[in-house]
């Protein structure tokens, strides 16, 4: 048997072991049906459940704890950069939505309409906000007088509502959760700097906290936010090769400020419309965490955002279980003193094997098993979620090394996801190669002529769209290349570089 | 001039000074029109603004920061007592609301109805949640199997919607903000203990954090939450003598679990309906802070919840303003190192007098003025919001003593509010006295027979209702008194004690 054959065999054995475990555990393997895998993991890991409201989910405690961690990190950074939170109404007068022409065209098919309050039929209905540019523009018009009042650096956390026919928890729900940032500036340069600052913050958050390698770039005109002058996004690759737009930042020019009369007196006593921006990350990002890091055993939570970073499992018999639980709590207290989030699994009606599987499915980064003989020997058994191997370590060593261990898992996740994205992105120059690569579930780097009609045809052919045009200083795929020709039309390439095509969520 | 006359004169002079300041600042004095005072303070202190949506407000940055502090304190305590957050949909199928008979009767006139999504008219409409017992009951039915699953200790933060004809920021808005706690238990005793635990938590929060003396008690049947077996409340007295219900905790018995089939197998293998509770504090509590502590100069924020605890005002001329700002930042950094929230007012387009008034209006507990001569002398000028007096202190002394100073202001606020409540509560035994006291804007302690018809007549006569029946271990008005007769009907008294009557917000 050659060395390569040996590796293949090993891989096959590993795979068999995985399949068996997955079957036993009851999650469909990713390779069998990625969609089923996703839905089962969401439900069995207790992230979310279906609801009796069309298109809406219920976020369960484990999913809510994850979302709260996301909110806390971002909120702290928004405040640190001078942004202020506000709370605007959930309802928006229908007439507001129709004021910005592109905006109404973009959102009309997705709106929830409120036409009755108590027993009173409303002559002018309200909609549940699909986003809040309009009502915020309206309020700003009343608050803004002079250049001295600017910038407005505002954001709010809350729900938004956009009808969805095919629901999928976190990815496509008719009610979802987000922050929406809204800022107003005296000039274009400052507004564009804000747009970029927030895009970069999202990139930092995804990379360093969620271990998601994402590509920063600009959207083409046909993929822009309804009403924007320029839309920037971060795009991540899921383990089925599809792209997930994970955050957006928009330069709105003076479109909304003209529609809502958001003007001010300049230092030179002229009257001028404000330049506005908006930006958002939503609960979709939880879908990105699941689909970037998960495997056939379930979730893998990046340690820097995990609701539970370490789970301690007291392994006892009936006669010493309480004692082992107490020991587990002592161990947990030492870990918590380092600022770690630790859970002790005290359930007594289920087997140890069930517990192990349950926490693997929930993706807790590190598991510690603590049995009576371990206790006597002064050791614990430690297992990282991303490894098959169990380690027996001196108790103190396990405690003192926990932070570094978690950092190691965090780095491993980012590296694996980065390799996966790079390995599954191909550079092509012919439409035949293009179609084959998209069909194979890859991202494609190709030249495009910039014609929206061509983008539409490519989408009709292949279901792929231009995810974005990577920025010149994006971490990935940033290279400028002059003189290319469009992979679809053969016309001269736009943008001065290849763009990223892919199918998307 | 006698001593009493001297005091009176002093009071008159003080009053004149206050009136002048209030006029200059532009807030109507409380004694002239409490309602105008409230609305002006809310707007001028930048807590909230009116919105273009009927009955809804916009919460501005200062109000939002206050609400975030409230959320953070309560959320930490909910989690510390084992409660888990979830996120339920904002929409509820109309059919759910009608399942619990009392519930629909209570909420029907206030519902917002969604009858169209996109272009599709819905055969079964949704309502915007007025509260979430129904949809949570529905979900619980799917999650609950065995007594081992209990208790469910759930809560969520979010908006709720109840139509309001006459809007008043924080107090009566058609959309408001709250947490709603929902728990399910295997038996009545455990459920009732939860109801009491949360009521006591609310009491602790109001007393120790918001400096609001509140009376814990049970509501009479006619004032119960729609669908509850027992409703408990905390009631506070505003500076116009009216009561504000500041938090509620309900024992729902098996009413909602029967309506939504929330049942489980007991340890003895019987099938049983869960005993459920719900509890809430809403954004109304901000109204209580404003109306309990505010004076003719504006808000007074209790230091333990204040978004800004100390404001530093650099007092410079054109040529040294930047230097004084830098000194102010240095001072602020020392205070922040103690965990205090400090703002340096760097605005250069406004006078010092304007700044002083502005921060007094916003109720910042302590102001520090820092001028060039102070700097040379190593002193600062310190003024507490609740005093007319300015103190010149050594810089180090001002810094090292700041926490104690804030604690002193906190204690002073609670003491003042407590005295005010006790001074404005009268104990009466005749209906004539009762009517006179209510008319004079007091709370009344009186016996009542327990007949809902009599409660209704009293309300029609005087606009006063029974705020609550103080608990036997309530901090205030807890005394049991046997043998009383009803102040209204002359029948034997119910409850074994006097109850609290008052007009209410």
From TrEMBL, chains A, B:
It is found in: Cytoplasm. GO terms for cellular component: aminoacyl-tRNA synthetase multienzyme complex; cytoplasm. GO terms for biological process: prolyl-tRNA aminoacylation. Residues 55-302 form the Aminoacyl-transfer RNA synthetases class-II family profile domain. Keywords: Aminoacyl-tRNA synthetase, ATP-binding, Cytoplasm, Ligase, Nucleotide-binding, Protein biosynthesis. Residues 1-22 have a biased composition (Basic and acidic residues). InterPro entries: aa-tRNA-synt_IIb, aa-tRNA-synth_II, aa-tRNA-synth_II/BPL/LPL, Anticodon-bd, Anticodon-bd_dom_sf, Pro-tRNA-ligase_IIa, Pro-tRNA-ligase_IIa_arc-type, Pro-tRNA_ligase_II_C. PROSITE patterns: AA_TRNA_LIGASE_II. Its EC number is 6.1.1.15. GO terms for molecular function: ATP binding; proline-tRNA ligase activity. Pfam families: HGTP_anticodon, ProRS-C_1, tRNA-synt_2b. The keyword Protein biosynthesis applies. It comes from the Bacteria. Residues 1-26 are annotated as: Disordered. It catalyses: tRNA(Pro) + L-proline + ATP = L-prolyl-tRNA(Pro) + AMP + diphosphate. Belongs to the class-II aminoacyl-tRNA synthetase family. ProS type 3 subfamily. Consists of three domains: the N-terminal catalytic domain, the anticodon-binding domain and the C-terminal extension. Homodimer. Catalyzes the attachment of proline to tRNA(Pro) in a two-step reaction: proline is first activated by ATP to form Pro-AMP and then transferred to the acceptor end of tRNA(Pro). This is Proline--tRNA ligase. It comes from Deinococcus budaensis. The gene is proS.
